[in-house]
């Protein structure tokens, strides 16, 4: 799977995350840190990044002191990182300027702006604290190049940062490392491949990294999907239309009960696969539109929406 930073437009900011891999079978006791303690975590993250890329110390480092599931970060337009950047842009600067370390924690159990978390994604084994590095464009470009080249391999979190995260969130951390969003894409692509979801990744990759590009999943027995204009259109088939496309040589209705039972089982599996893909796409913030197809399904998915 080709998931690289070269597939996405250049950014004027470094979008990263501290990835906390929990001890198997464990969960975090707390999802977010109160505002009073958020700054300490952000300072540790900034120190880690400055050790890895010294020029990062001259950039603003903005962090939310809460942990998220990968699907909450990997969404078109990087909405969590975008919200962090917008909140940082509104924060006042001290006289004389200079780099800032900004942290956004919870107040009365709520995070600011659009940084709210989705409870249904709170139990995963990989937890992510998103952060943004911003500042002088030339410096950002150099730090970004360094991060994209080596952060996944060399960006282990310092012991102080890892221990602080354990204490702050009441979690047992097995590994703690820094990643860019492109590193996270690559990691997620591998995880989906191991989970049997590799056919769907090219559409997700297009939505995340090349939203203007068109992408297809047209590989029977998988569902037929087309990504374009920010939406995935999924072909829906009644049993007869499904049989014509996916099982054209199957026995006709009226043949052996065993054959018909087998076809019914395959069709039920196909529908379950459609539901699985729909749930995953929506978890990543990608809209799904269902197109009920009768004839040339590819042409029907390419047809403009009815007005």
Describe this structure in words.
This protein has 307 residues and is of the alpha+beta class. It is built from 10 helices and 9 strands. The chain has helices spanning 35-52, 70-73, 79-90, 137-154, 159-169, 181-194, 201-209, 239-246, 257-283, 297-302; strands at 14-22, 60-64, 101-104, 126-134, 173-180, 215-217, 225-228, 231-236, 287-292. The strands form 2 sheets. The protein has a 5-stranded mixed β-sheet with strand order 3-2-4-1-5, with helices on both faces. Strands 6-7-8-9 form a 4-stranded mixed β-sheet.
- Bin the strand percentage: 15-25%
Q: Going across the major beta sheet, what is the strand order?
A: 3-2-4-1-5
Task: Give the N-to-C terminal Cα separation.
Answer: 37 Å
Number of helices: 10
> What is the global morphology?
elongated
Average of the residue pLDDT scores = 91
Distinctive features:
single chain, disordered N terminus, alpha+beta, 10 helices, 9 strands, four-stranded mixed beta sheet, 41% helix
Quick structural summary:
Helix content is 41%, strand content 18%.
